[in-house]
Amino acid sequence: MFKRVDYITKVTYPNITTYYLFHKEESILLPVEVFNYNPQYTFPDSRIIISTILNTLNAVYTETLIYLHQDDKYYCYLKIKNENKTYEINANFIDAIELAVYEQKPILILSEILEQQGFKVTKNMVMNALNTNSSSGCTFEY
pTM score > 0.85 for this model? Predict the structure, then answer.
């Protein structure tokens, strides 16, 4: 069974980017770390290319499915509809999440992955983190 998660944000460091996905009903946060890569060019990016191809083919991207976690990697499908057919096309994690955010489409994750890789966020956890880090000079937005 797949569960819908919300994209919260991504935090980029020199060598790694962490994407944060959140399942609201169960208060489970899933941080996903991916290694940064330096493409030789930055435009057009994958999400624009994919959107252009789909528009040209009169196909509609409906959602991203995160279906597997193996060897510290997350595997995704892009769910595509064209006329009466539905396709699940493999995509790398970064492209799948960036496209979902760009197109404002749902992100669904296999419930076993969410439960095994995520962690439950409690009010105490958040308050303790804010209190602990408030003296570090960081600015928090609520």
Answer: no
